[in-house]
């Protein structure tokens, strides 16, 4: 391997860690805010389930490797530029306490770097159409599914006392949180697998865009490590500031989000786990009353979502210009 490929793999691992760092809130924000698990118990559980989820498939990885850009038309500096831009954006948003989409960050960064290298012809328009359809519709499905699933639970368990409901769903939430972390690993860790595989292909190390076993393993471990660090400011934003959650609400939001994410992973579609769990929480909260959701906080999250794609495209575009001049 050339030095630039080795550097790209290191950058990919750092991006994966930053992804887990920001997205740890997706799996544990609700279970921590409802005090079902301690923060330490929650991050260890989430990290373990993230690793397991990352090992089940490579369908999303292949979509990232072939569905965003034409693999034969890019260079290692394009991949490196995309990873640098995505890592910087994820880290900055985590420090600010804002949950953002690592999917949007990575895909936008890859687009920006590719555009700087070869223009529009490098982009896989058909693949991007498929990817963006999934990215844009999944949050809408999240809020709808979260709302109606919570309505169903209220209809079934509404006659029980609050104490009984909290006791039952406190235990159930451990299960739903585990599956949420598993689904996160099954989708998000694969994006880095795809980007490393793309770099190996463009550098001539492998002859086809098939994910090597060692790439699967390091991506899974990096995601688990990032999750274990815990993005506590993001957890506070998602699990406390946006909506006051009880265990039944956490169970409903996590179950709805998990169903959507695992379905997307099965068919090879990269979706934003952040967007899906956030909108599922909003949908669950809306069953109480619209004012139960702190829409000011939700608005800040939405603004970060909107800015992610153009910011990462621009950042990666200029990073590729700089790196290609150096290498």
Structure write-up:
By secondary structure, the protein is an all-alpha fold. The protein has one domain. Helices cover 80% and strands 0% of the residues. The chain has helices spanning 3-33, 39-54, 59-67, 76-95, 102-118, 125-157, 162-202, 213-229, 232-241, 247-266, 273-286, 295-326. The model has no long low-confidence stretch (mean pLDDT 83).
Helix content: over 70%
Low-confidence stretches: none
Count of helix runs: 12
Q: Please describe the biggest sheet, giving its number of strands, its sense, and whether it closes into a barrel.
A: none
Average residue pLDDT: 83
Strand segment count: 0
This entry's quaternary arrangement is: single chain
Portion of residues in beta strands equals under 5%
Q: What separation lies between the terminal Cα atoms?
A: 15 Å
Instruction: Give the overall shape.
Output: elongated
**Rg estimate, integer Å:** 19 Å
Helix-strand category: mainly alpha
Compute the number of structural domains: 1
Q: What is the chain-wise order of helices and strands?
A: HHHHHHHHHHHH
